[in-house]
C-alpha cells in the first residue's frame, strides 16, 4: 500500500509539473527581448502588446528595447546590449539590413536565438522570419491603385529607403504596374523616418496640374498616411487617391471620413505574440546546429517564413476594424 501510495504521489507530482501555468517549463528568469525602431508609433505599441501578452501567459520576462524614432544605428546598439545580457532569445525588426545583419549574426554566434519580425534580414543567420508577405501586400495595394485610377495616372510613393519590408512592398506595386503602362511612378520619396517630410512633399505636389498632376499617393509606412491625408484635405481637392499602410486609429478614421481610400492591414500584435512563443520553443528545444543555414534543408526544424496575413481595408470593412480596435482598448 505504501508503494502504491508513493507511486500515486509521484504521478500526481509529475502531472502537476507538466500542467500549463505550473512553472515547470517556464520561469521569469527566462528573458526575451523585442528590439525594434520607431517604438513610439501605434503600430509598435500594438506589437509590444502581443509580445507582452505571450510573456504573461508563459510567466517569462519580456523586455522591449530600441529607439522611439527611426534610428538603425541606435537599434543596432540596443541589439548589441541585448546580446550582452545573454537572454533566452531575441525578436528583432530589421530597420536596415546592412546595419543590423552583423549584430544578428553575432547574436547567433554567441548562442542567442534570433527570429526576425515585421522586417527581415534574409541574408543573415537568423532562424526565420515572422511577419507579412510584403511582396504580396504590395501587389494587393497595387491592384487597388490600378482599380481607382482606371489603369492610368501619376503615382507618388512615400517610403523608408533601405528598410527590407518597404523595399519589398514597393517591388510588389511595381510588379502590378508593369502590365499597366498608363500608370507612371513619378517619384519615390524617402521620408527618412520623419512623416512631416511626407506632409511637406504632398503640399508641394498637390500644386502640380495638367500632365504633371498626381492622381494617387501611396504610403508604404504606418506613420505618414494621416499627414498625407491632412495635406490633401487642406487643398479641398477630393479627386486624389490615397492608399495608406496599417490600421492606426487615425488611418481608420481617415477611411471612414473619405480622406483615405484604403490601407493595407498587417498584424503586428500577432507578430509579437507568435514571435515570443516561437523563441520560447527554440529556447526549450534548441537545434543541434544553431547557426546552420536551413534554407536548403528539406528536413529543417523551422520554416523559412511565417506569414501573419494581410487584408485591404476600405469603407466596406473599416467598421469591423474600428470595432476590433475599440474592444482591445478596453
Topology:
Layout: H1 2-18, E1 31-35, H2 42-58, E2 61-65, H3 72-84, E3 89-92, H4 97-109, E4 114-117, E5 129-131, H5 134-149, E6 153-159, H6 164-177, E7 183-190, H7 195-206, E8 216-219, H8 224-235, E9 241-245, H9 249-257, E10 262-265, H10 268-284, E11 305-307, E12 311-313, H11 318-329
Parallel strand pairs: 1-2, 1-3, 3-4, 4-5, 5-11, 6-7, 6-8, 8-9, 9-10
Antiparallel strand pairs: 10-12
Helix pairs in contact: 2-10, 3-4, 5-6, 7-8, 9-11
Question: What does the model show?
Answer:
The protein is an alpha/beta fold. It folds into 2 domains: 26-132 and 268-292, Response regulator (Rossmann fold, 3-Layer(aba) Sandwich), CATH 3.40.50; 134-265 and 313-329, Rossmann fold. It is 46% helix and 17% strand. It contains 11 helices and 12 strands. It has helices at residues 2-18, 42-58, 72-84, 97-109, 134-149, 164-177, 195-206, 224-235, 249-257, 268-284, 318-329, and strands at residues 31-35, 61-65, 89-92, 114-117, 129-131, 153-159, 183-190, 216-219, 241-245, 262-265, 305-307, 311-313. It has a 6-stranded parallel sheet, with helices on both faces. Strands 7-6-8-9-10-12 form a 6-stranded mixed sheet, sandwiched between helices. Helix 2 (42-58) runs parallel beside helix 10. It starts with a helix and ends with a helix.
